[in-house]
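User: quick one
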Amino acid sequence: MLEQILIQTINGLVNGMILALVASGLTLIFGIMDVVNFAHGDLVMLGAFLGATTMSITGNFWVALLVAALVIGMFGALLQATTLRPLLGRDPLMTLLATFGVSLVLQKYALWQWGPSARKIEEPITAQFKLFYLEYPWYRIATALMSAALIGALYLFLKHTKYGIWIRATTQDRVMAAAMGIPVPLVHTGVFAIGAGMAAMSGVLFGPLAGVTQTIGADFTLRAFTVVVVGGMGNLGGSILASMFISLLEAYAALVVSPAQAVIVSFLALILTLLFRPTGLFVPTQR
Amino acid sequence: MLTLADVHTYYGKSHILHGVSLEVREGEVVGLLGRNGVGKSTTLKTIAGLVRPAQGSVALDGREIGGLPAHRLAHLGVAYVPEERRIFRFLTVMENLRTGLDRPGMTDARRKELLDKAYRYFPVLAERRSQAGGTLSGGEQQMLAIARAMMLEPKIILLDEPTEGLMPRMVGQIREIVDVLHAEGVAILLVEQNVPLTLEASSRCYIMEKGVIRHHAPSVELRRDHAVIHTYLGV
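Assistant: Done. Structure below.
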């Protein structure tokens, strides 16, 4: 039993890191634009497909990761400029419906372009190590580490660079940021591009762990939303902690019930959070 | 330098400014007086590009700037210090100042010069440079808001109620800051409830009522003209 718990702890942390990579983009976008991006998971899906295609051409996983991040990042910028920028400052319901529409379009596009059968991305690292009675793939550990590194890079970017300060200032006070000469519309587009690029990278990293189909997006959207709400909307650190919390919760629940039923636990956490602490579980009292 | 001619501004359907005309010359301190809700703050927001004028002209050095986005105006030399100060609470003092320094055409040397100047005028900000803006006292936040505006090397600073809610000791300090800015050659359009302070700090004053300018006179005259002050401001 102890061995199983340890294995599930590792599984939970690995899944949590990938989820955190998706959720940090989502929460960044919400924090700065008040836009609930329903198409976020579909950017993960598009990234995964694009990664799979690039990989079948180049045969190189790392090139696929880079191409997916750049192309989907640019696509995200285009998406923001055409569908969300005109809606800025309107009723949040409008942007919610708009991104929901975009989500449907992207899913159907993927179905049309890549077909209904699952694609597999070959993992770049095939070695395994002995974890009690299991042969555990190193790739899973590498995914968690790469996700952590990417989130770390985002943090350093936000903390120390000129554009990071622009993003944080705009998140706190859009009007005053503009009055200080910060090109707010450009910052919004940039943040959306960063979020989209991170989503695409999560898709490529996640690709080898499960098949890539046009429906993985919806699943990621749902899970990312759960952690963003549990972590406190717009709060980056909170979303990362909540990703870990929810994924560990699901992993431990899978010891008792089937993995499909274990997902229920995360929604239970979501409902309880909304009932008793709607501002989020991992929010410092200051914000 | 800054000229408003017949400016009309709306918030949704409510008509706030009914044709405001005023002028601020280079390096001049001009007061804008009036009771609450007559449109003083809206006038400043319109100049700063935060509210779009529906009609009329706003010109800076002869160039029409009405309707330009706020961030362009900041680069053209219009700095805005709002009533609520609106410093970035979760950014450090240094980062707050940096928001005005990372603009096109800046050099590292110039950046350092401007920062040094801000810290020289406001030594307390130098002490607290790594502290989050939200942890500063009201007076320190006001200093930060003004120092942040100075980072833009503005031609004109729009100062909205800088002494509101400050301790009397701080009010004197704000007064000194206005004089310092004036000495630097920056023009100031000052909106204040504190009439004596405004009349002392400014060379001319406009008095607003119900969205229009009702009276305009040199501050020296207004200091003696108690009737006008009483009629429009009730003090």
